[in-house]
Amino acid sequence: MRSEDIAKLAGVSRSTVSRVINNYSNVPEETRAKVLKVIEQHQYEPNSFARALAGKKTDTIGLFAISMNEKENTTRIYQNNYFAPFVDAVVDTANARGCYVLIHTVYSPDDFLKVKQAFLQKRIDGGIIVGTQKDIDIVREMVGLDSPLVLIDYDISEIMSEHLDRNHLAVVNSKDYEGATEAIEYLIGLGHAEIGIICGRMNTYSGRERYMAYEDTLKRHGLPLNENFILQGDFLKETAYDEVKKLLASGGPLPTAFFSSNDDMAISAMEAFSEQNIAVPEEMSIAGFDDIQMASRIQPKLTTVRLPIYEMSKAAVEKVIELCDSQQPTFSTISFPARLIARDSCQPPKQ
Amino acid sequence: MRSEDIAKLAGVSRSTVSRVINNYSNVPEETRAKVLKVIEQHQYEPNSFARALAGKKTDTIGLFAISMNEKENTTRIYQNNYFAPFVDAVVDTANARGCYVLIHTVYSPDDFLKVKQAFLQKRIDGGIIVGTQKDIDIVREMVGLDSPLVLIDYDISEIMSEHLDRNHLAVVNSKDYEGATEAIEYLIGLGHAEIGIICGRMNTYSGRERYMAYEDTLKRHGLPLNENFILQGDFLKETAYDEVKKLLASGGPLPTAFFSSNDDMAISAMEAFSEQNIAVPEEMSIAGFDDIQMASRIQPKLTTVRLPIYEMSKAAVEKVIELCDSQQPTFSTISFPARLIARDSCQPPKQ
DNA sequence: CTGAAAGCGCTTACAG
DNA sequence: CTGAAAGCGCTTACAG
After folding, report:
1. Does residue B81 have a pLDDT over 80?
2. SS3 of residue B316 by DSSP
3. How far apart are CA B210 and CA A351, in angstroms?
4. Which GO molecular-function terms appear in the entry (chains A, B) (predicted)?
5. Does at least one atom of strand C sit less than 7 Å from the CB of A343?
6. Which residue of A112, A183, B99, B210 has the lowest C-beta tally within 10 Å?
7. Is the domain covering A176-307 a CATH 3.40.50.2300 domain?
8. What is the pLDDT of residues B255-277, one digit of tens each?
C-alpha cells in the first residue's frame, strides 16, 4: 500500500494524500476526512525511508554507549549498572516524544565506525553519547559530522578550549564534584580522619571529578592523603574487590572509611571486608556513588550519592530534539545536582 | 556527498559506484580500487534510506519490550532486572552481526501502534518481541504484518492451535517448567514439605509455567497445596513484599520454604522476612528464578534458576536475521534449558 | 565490463 | 484548493 493507492481509492492525487498526512492547513475538512478514512481502512503508514529521502526527519535518535575498557565477557553494557538506567530513561523519554531510538554499543575504537556511519548514512536525526572517555579527538570527529549531538558526562572545559563549542552540540553533566564532596564531608562530619578512596576510571570525566573532590576535600580539612588508601579501580566490581583484598593482605593499617567512586565497587568492597570479618559499618564505613538499584537492597543499605539519571536523560533527549529542529548551530550545557543519600553503611569510627 | 559525486570524482558512473559498494563481482580490480579510494577519501557512506527505498535491507532490527502491567513511575523497563539483560544481549549480538537495533518499549496497548508502525513504515527488516503477554490477538496482528518476527517467551501450543505457525515466525523459549521443577524438587529433597510460592504475572507464559511446575511437582510428591501459601505476585518487588508482610501479619502458620517466580520478588521476600526477624535460610528457605546479577551479591546468596538469557537473545537475533534472508515463510521454535544454581538461601527445615 | 534509464515511495514548490 | 512534475539518493535490470 503506497500513497498512490490511497490516492486512487480516495479519488485524489498523491499530493493531497501527502498533504493530509503532513497536516497541511489548506485541505478542506471534507477532503481530509475522505482521505483519512481510506488510510485508516487500510492501515496505511507512509514508508519512512521515502519520507526521509524526500526531506522529512527520520524521527529516530541514536543512543551510543561507550564502554571501551570493559573486560571481555564480563559485565556487558546494559547489565552495567551505570548505563542501564540511562538507556531506560532515554528510550522512555524519546518514545514519549514519538521518537524511535537506535542503540549501539561501543566496546572498541573500531566500533566507533558504526556510530559515525549511523550519522553519515543519515539513519538518525541526532545522537546522544554516554560514557565518552577523555578523548577529545573522538569528540572532535563526532562534532565534525555536524549533526545534532549531545554528550552525557564530558568535561566542558576541554570542549571550550578546543573551540568545539559552536556546533550542534550540547553537554549534559551531573555535579559529581559537589556530590562527592558532600559524601566526603559527611564522612568527615561523622568523625573520620583516615579516609580512603576507590577510584573510578581516570580517563572518564566522572572518574576524575570524583577523585578530585576527594583530594581537595581532604586537603581543605587538613586531613592526610595516604597513598596506600588510594585504591586504583576502574568502576568494575571485580577490580575493586581485588584491590581491597590486596590492601587487606598487605597487613598494613586501614582507613576507617572508604569513599568508592561508584556503588558497584562499593558493594564489592563491602563483600571483601565482610569476608575478612571486618564489619561494615561498625569497623569500616563505606559510601558509594550512583545510587543504583542494589544500593538500597543490600545489607547494610548503602550510603551513596544519587545521580539524577532520569532528569539527565530527559534533558539529553530534549536537547537533541531541540537541536534537530533548530537551524542555528548552538552550544549549550546543563549540569544537574547530585546529592547524598545517607543510609546505613556509614557511622562514626570506632574509638 | 552522494554516489553521483563519488562517480564524478572517480570518473565512472553511479552504477559502477553502486556496484563496488555492493560488492558485485563484475568490477575489475582496478576500477574497484579507484572508486574505493575516492570513497575513503571523502568518508562517503551511502544514504541508508535511499538504499532501503531502492530495495536493500535496512540492516536494522526492532526490539520491543512489552511491559504492560508495570505500575506507573516505578521500575521502568531497563531497570527491570528481567529485560535489561535481554536488551543487553540482543544489542550485543545484533551489533556484532552488523545490525542496528531500534528499541521501543510498550507500556500500554496504545504503544503497540508504535511497534506496528515500525514494521509498516518499513523501518526494520524484522523484529523481536520480549515479554508478550498471553494475548493471542496481538500476536495474530503482529504475525499478520507478515514481517520476520521472533517472540521470546510465548506459549507455543497457543500459536499452533491458532495456526499461526506458518509465517515468518520463530519462538524462543526457556524451559521454565523444567527449571522451576528442579528448584522445587531441590527444596523437597532438602526435606521441605510445606512449600509456598510467590506467583508471577499469570498472564505471561513464564508466569504460568513456573506456577504449573510448582503445582504439579507438589502433587506428584503427594505434598499439600495450601492456598494460604500461594502468594499472588506480579513479578514486581513491591507486590511480593506486601504479600509476604500480609501473610506474616495474618499470624497464620508459615511454610518452611518459598519458591519465588522471580529473583526480584525473592529478594523482597527476604527483606520482609528479615524485618520480622525470620532468618533466611535458617527459619525460611527461599529460592528464586532468573539469576539476576543481584542474586549472587546479597546475603545470603540466593539459590535460583538461571535463565540462559544470552543464548536466548543470540538465538533470537540469529533467527530474525535468518528469517529476513530467507524467502520461504517458516515457523520454528527453540527452547533453552534453565538450571538450578544452588547457593545459600535454602537449607533443610528446622526440626 | 559499464552507462543510461527506470523505479523505489514520498514531499513540495509550481502552476493553475 | 489541488494536480503534474521534479527531486530526494540509491539499485538494478537492460542494452551494448
Report:
1. no
2. helix
3. 52
4. DNA-binding transcription factor activity; transcription cis-regulatory region binding
5. no
6. A112
7. yes
8. 999 999 999 999 999 999 999 99
